[in-house]
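Onboarding guide, step 5: your first structure request.
Type a short instruction followed by the sequence, for example:

Predict the 3D structure of this protein.
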Amino acid sequence: MTYRMEKVCAVTVMFLSVSGAYSDSHSLRYYYTGVSVPLPGIPEFSIIGYLDDQLTELYSSDIQERIPVAAWMKEYKDPEYWERTTQVCKRDEALFRHEVKTVMKRFNHTGGLHIVQVMTSCELRDDGSVSGYQQYRYDGTEYMFFDTQRVTYIPTMREAEITTQRWNSLNVRMGEAAKNFLENTCIDRLKKFIKFGKEDLERRVRPRVKVTGRVSGKVTKLHCQVYGFHPRAVDVKWMKNGEDEVHSYETTHVLPNPDGTYQIRVSAEVTPKEGDRYSCYVDHSSLEEELNIVWEPPQTSHLTVIISAASIVLILTPVIAGVIIYMKRQNYMAAGTSDASPDL
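The system replies with structure tokens like these:
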């Protein structure tokens, strides 16, 4: 089951952001994925739920059941919820099969592997305000989204114009149902889940930071490893002289650790000038103040020069002494030979 779950979750990666500044607001997101051709370990249809950074629920066409994933979610003993939402998932599965074929037709695709994904998200902010969002993607590219303010589906590619016109029509008005789910059903569910998983969701673990650098000629590659933090949301970047943000040439995804914490590495390539100081800036909800860890470049001090010179002397002294002794012996032997054979 664990291997299958990892495969199902893998197809949602294109939706997930790399990193970002933390916030004490909460969001509930559902990722719907349908594939035109089922692959080993990847079902034809799946729904994955996230509360903030935690995987909470899972449904797939393989298991035909909505199941809890997070440890605290497994303690959510509400048979009516699991039975009712399982039936909703089965209905969505049938709709998605049709939707995948429809979207493929819009893009003039008659075969091959294609993926249709929908991300539905609602957010409850610190001030009590709420927001919702829906995004539709085909083979990883957005083709339309739902505008909750105008209660309208907006095409971002011409292939979605027929669908959005029909969904926005007075006869269908799908936007009203979507808005009701995002601002009511989803928010009510979010509040209930937050209350139930409060202890784990509000756990705060300070990040640990390690900065390293590798000098190669005039270029220096800096690495900032931030690890052991919880929750997942974090803001990490390299700074120059405490003010200017340095462009990062490599940033990993925020990755989970076995103990439930997270890690991320941000790297930058710089050409330091005299007086420049580079530091890794870290902001996280567990911190009272942001961290600014300075990278100290390696320097050759006078003490190092003295030690090096002393080392050379220690190495060469036995050699020099050996040469002197050898030369004295040679001179002594030459002198002795001359005195013993004066007539030769």
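Each response can be followed by summary notes, for example: The first helix runs from residue 2 to 10.
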